[in-house]
Amino acid sequence: METRRLDQSFDRYEELLALILTSFAYMDGRIDPPSSAHALTVESLRRKSNDEIGFVIAVGRELLGCVFVKPEPDCLYIGKLAIDPAHQGKGLGLRLLAAAEETAGHFGLPVLRLQTRIELTENHATFAAWGFVETSRSAHPGFTRPTSIEMRKLLWT
User: Fold this and answer.
1) Which residues is 78 bridged to in the sheet?
2) Is the peptide bond before 33 cis (omega within 30 degrees of 0)?
3) pLDDT tens string 116-135
4) For the whole model, what pTM was predicted?
5) In this structure, what are the phi and psi dihedrals at residue 66, rounded to the nearest 5 degrees?
6) Helix, strand or coil for residue 33?
7) CA-CA distance, 138 to 126, in Å (whole number)?
8) Residues 6+ apart with CB under 8 A from 157
């Protein structure tokens, strides 16, 4: 099992898109508005990997998980954390989180930040178990109720 940073040699964006969509499929019908994963394309993932830092976990040629991170002024943002449903619960998310923590250290950023949908209580519990705490709630455009929770993890002080 290998955790690999995406670079210019990575050419498996169709498989990566399929992994993200499969991993996020359980949200369909549960969250409103729908996940931004539905707006992803092979080309937008290519751009995302150029604009952000991406990691994948693979066994041989099989992609099992991914995450994208992006340095912000005071933290490292974590997005599109996706694990193949057949491989969830095996510590792959923690492996990707470790890659994010290492990247944050490289940039001198003491905090990780992510957003999760308000309806996905199982995700809130997982992220809390990983050391994240809720820091705010927000609403997507056009909504008057909170739709998203921001969570942060302090890596050092």
Assistant:
1) 69, 114
2) yes
3) 999 999 999 999 999 999 99
4) 0.97
5) -155, 165
6) coil
7) 20
8) 110
Question: Which residues are CB-contacts of 156 (< 8 A; sequence separation ≥ 6)?
Answer: 110
Tell me the pLDDT tens digit for each residue of 25-37. 999 999 999 999 9
Measured distance CA(97)–CA(64) in Å, rounded: 14
- The helix/strand/coil state of 110 is coil
Question: Which long-range CB contacts under 8 A does 83-91 form with residues at least 24 apart?
Answer: 83/23, 84/19, 84/22, 84/23, 85/22, 85/23, 85/25, 85/26
CA–CA separation, 102 and 120 (whole Å): 27
Q: Residue 96's domain spans which residues?
A: 2-154
Distance CA 72, CA 107 (A): 10
109, 100, 102: which is closest to 127 by C-alpha?
100
Longest dimension (CA), the chain: 46
Q: Following CA atoms 88, 53, 114, 67 in sequence, which dihedral angle do they give, to the nearest 10 degrees?
A: -10
Total of domains in the chain = 1
Q: Any alpha helices (H) in the chain, and if so which ranges? A: 13-24, 42-51, 92-107, 121-129
CATH number of residue 85's parent domain: 3.40.630.30
